[in-house]
Write a structure and sequence with these properties.
The chain is of the alpha/beta class and about 270 residues long. It has helices at about 15-20, 35-40, 55, 70-80, 100-115, 130-135, 155, 165-180, 195-205, 225, 245-260; strands at about 25-30, 45-50, 85-90, 120, 140-145, 185-190, 210, 220. The chain contains 11 helices and 8 strands. α4 packs parallel to α5 (about 100-115) and α8 runs parallel beside α9 (about 195-205). The site of 3-methyl-2-oxobutanoic acid has 11 residues, from β6.
């Protein structure tokens, strides 16, 4: 049992497990602030990820590495205040769990205690399994993340598709099984061949969530700013944009500027 709630409709890790068993796809999107989380939760999303992609889309950094634990807690607590139904998963940021399981546990506890989130996500396989196991001993649900793991971008050197070669694909499958064995409740797989994602999904009891991993995973995740079309310059093949909010918002600002300049705004009915 994970997220404890008196609200029977609240998503839990058990709900996600049941969805996999019943073949119902799981939906997941990122959110980093109250207003966006409210829209996404009201729309009926299953899982909200307070991703360390906040480092890119909220703070404008080139990578996810600079974001801090305090900043993640700030984003997560803003999201939590909006959410009534979704399971809220928070990324442990770079440098707060790798190579030190005691530090990993205290980072996870800070997130759970100070933000009220329901679970944490960590990037990596066997190299972080001690951290995952230690966090699990505190009763904190953990989600895994394999494939393109952006916190390792300087190791990879590129954001290209991972695990195309057999050796890396076998390692990914073995990492996935290991993470399941130690007790993660779900697994994100980012930017890997669709066939490999399908194989991993079929080999695991826990749900898999893909991003750029084809449609045979148990669910899908996108960065909400990409889905809404706010981030114009990011155009990977896997991304489907559902809006062009960048141009919509820009047009609204241009209209506002023009209305103020021409003294059209505010008009008589917009004043006291
Ligand atoms: O930080 C993030 O937004 C993520 C998703 C891309 C899965 O980890």
């Amino acid at each position: 049992m994970s997220a404890v709630s008196k609200d029977a409709k609240r998503m839990t890790t058990l709900t996600l497990q049941r969805m996999k068993e019943e073949g119902e796809k799981i939906t997941m999107l990122t959110a980093y602030d109250y207003s966006m989380a409210k829209v996404i939760d009201d729309a009926g999303i299953d899982v909200i990820l307070v991703g360390d992609s906040a480092s890119n889309v909220m703070a404008g950094h080139e990578t996810t590495l600079p974001i801090t634990l305090d900043q993640m807690i700030y984003h997560a607590s803003s999201v939590i205040r909006a959410v009534k139904k979704a399971l809220v998963v928070v990324d442990l940021p770079f440098g707060t769990y790798q190579g030190n399981s005691t530090k990993a546990l205290s980072s996870a506890i800070r997130i759970m205690k100070e933000s009220g989130a329901h679970a944490v996500k960590l990037e990596g396989g066997e190299e972080i399994v001690d951290s995952v196991s230690r966090i699990l001993t505190a009763g904190v649900p953990v989600m895994g993340h394999l494939g393109l793991t952006p916190q390792s971008i300087y190791k990879f050197g590129t954001y290209t598709v991972r695990a195309k070669e057999d050796e890396e694909a076998q390692q990914l499958l073995s990492d996935a099984k290991l993470l399941e064995r130690v007790g993660v409740f779900g697994l994100v797989m980012e930017k890997i061949p669709a066939d490999l994602a399908k194989t991993v999904t079929e080999n695991l009891r826990i749900p898999t969530i893909g991003i750029g991993a084809g449609n045979q995973t148990d669910g899908q995740v996108l960065v909400s700013h990409d889905l809404f079309g706010i981030t114009k310059e990011f155009n990977p093949r896997f991304l489907r944009r559902y809006m062009d909010l960048y141009n919509g918002m820009k047009g609204a600002v241009e209209s506002y500027i023009s209305d103020v300049k021409s003294s059209d705004f505010p008009n008589e009915s917009e004043q006291y």
